Amino acid sequence: MSSAQTHRTIDAIWRMESAKLIAGLTRMVRDVALAEDLAQDALLIALERWPETGIPDNPGGWLMTTAKRRAIDFMRRNKLRDQKYGEIGRTSPLYTEDDVDQALDGEISDDLLRLIFMTCHPVLSQDARVALTLRLLCGLTTDEIARSFLVAESTVAQRIVRAKRTLSAEKVPFEVPTGEELNQRMAAVLEVIYLMFNEGYSATSGEHWIRPLLCQEALRLGRILAEIAPNEPEVHGLVALMEIQASRLKTRINAKGEPILLMDQNRAKWDQLLIRRGITALERSRKLGRPLGPYSLQAAISICHAQARSAAETDWIRIAALYEALARLSPSPIVELNRAVAISMAFGPAFGLQIVDQLNEEPSLKGYHLLPSVRADLLAKLGRYDEARSEFERAASMTRNTRERELLLQRAADCESGTYQ
Amino acid sequence: MRFMMIVKATTDSEAGVMPSQELIDAMQKYNEELVKAGVLLAADGLMPSSSAIRISYPEPGGKPKLVDGPFTESKELIAGYTLIEVKSREEAVEWALRMPDPHGFGQGEIELRQVFEVEELMDNPDTLAKEVTLRRQVEEQKKA
């Protein structure tokens, strides 16, 4: 193996092992900055030795052993021995690679869970949570993180350093929260993961190639979380939602780089493997026997679309019912608007219009062009073409997207000429 | 990046001989590791070629020829596959190296193949330029 090849292999191994490594070390030394440093030390030694000795049979074990030895050295040198010995007594300095192999899977899972609760802690800003999670749990480089979010590398580096300092200063414990706190903290973790996914999924982030990377990282992290926190239905719900949305990644944008609406996408290109995985994930959520939470409901809606072989075969009644449940659980004007569309498709435009008319006064939707756009469509379906035309024109004036404006003005013209469909 | 690890058939798998409990457990544990790492997409075992049918087109433009299994060259047959999603080829190799020897008596073989993926707009400079414009528009919209 050439030196370059060895380095790339070590990179791959790092990506596979670093989160577990850092999690295990954080449990030992109770400080995530120190844990990362120790893990990086082990990596440096690997980079030095492995090109000569070859990659060890159990590279993860080798890294863990090496890092733990350095942790013990460090603690001895810094006279933390007296405080920490109690904890590391269990992890004896005679730790061999075989011992690491024997390490309870449960222990590693717990440590990973503790780590993600830490990187998503509410004491950190949302930006910091995202950066730290991408760094410590996904093993992304500062450069990769910076390019995902269109910010300077130095900004990300500082964000991460400050985040670790804050966790240390606030003495954030390395633990899995319980009771009511668990619900809130889990919601924070899921929010970070979904934020990452959306950043990668929508056409608003940085270099084009990094977007799929962010989606993949978020999805992978969600899947990992589903294994270490299997009794949380919303974890499975979020994974289901991401799997289904990822199934459409290839059909969301046309050859010109413009977004294609769900109803217009080429369903033959939807990734059936991911759809199947999404359905399985939602099943796991349901099997836990609790009422579906917001992510699970959104996943269920997404699955309705995924299972319709054509736009015409969409089960709008079911979707309307799901939006109803979602509106009760996490009400928002956007959810109401989506519900209105579903109701109109299921029961006729008059019913949808009733809901939309109530949203006209909603302050948060003031500049949202989709509101008059939806209203216009419903009016046109009811034969109220004059009103529809002016609503389309109003919507057109509210959007800055040229293609959308053209589309809306075209619809307005169709209303005028009586050719609206 | 998606990769497929293809487990080759052996004389045992073709004869319908079940693998040892040890091997079954090891494979089970390995699949669990893939799941826990969030990289497993799908995995399946295929039935022996005794129930298989080969369809070939020896004559260009002609009718297909059907042949019933079993087929003799077990080494070239597929016994199962595992599909994974990883960040690099090296990561795929690492995972493939961690798969237990599928046979244990000298016939074990795993073939690692990369899955084709539509690169869509990734390479075309025109579409890239348009994508940049679209992105800027959305950014401006967000700021408004």
In DSSP terms (H or I, runs of 4 or more residues), the helix count of chain B works out at: 4
Secondary-structure class of chain A:
mainly alpha
List the secondary-structure elements of chain A in sequence, H or E. HHHHHHHHHHHHHHHHHHHH
- Shape estimate of chain A: elongated
What is the string of SSEs of chain B from the N terminus onward? EHHEEEEHEH
Low-pLDDT stretches of chain A are 89-102, 203-207
Tell me the radius of gyration of chain A: 26 Å
| Total strands of chain A | 0
Give an overview in words.
Chain A has helices at 3-29, 32-53, 59-77, 81-88, 97-102, 105-119, 126-136, 142-148, 153-169, 179-201, 210-228, 233-246, 272-287, 294-307, 316-329, 333-347, 349-359, 370-381, 385-398, 402-417. Chain A is mainly alpha-helical and 421 residues long. In chain A, helix 13 packs antiparallel against helix 14. Mean pLDDT of chain A is 89; it is low at 89-102 and 203-207. With 144 residues, chain B is of the alpha+beta class. In chain B, 34% of the residues lie in helices and 24% in strands. Chain B is built from four helices and six strands, in the order E-H-H-E-E-E-E-H-E-H. The longest helix of chain B has 19 residues, at 125-143. Classes of the chains: A mainly alpha (421), B alpha+beta (144). Chain A binds chain B through residues 5, 8-9, 11-13, 15-16, 59, 105, 109, 202-205, 208-209, 213, 216, 219-224, 227-228, 250, 253, 255-259, 273, 277, 367, 399-402, and chain B through 35-39, 41-42, 83, 85-88, 90-91, 93-95, 118, 120-122, 124, 127-128, 130-131, 133-135, 137-142, 144.
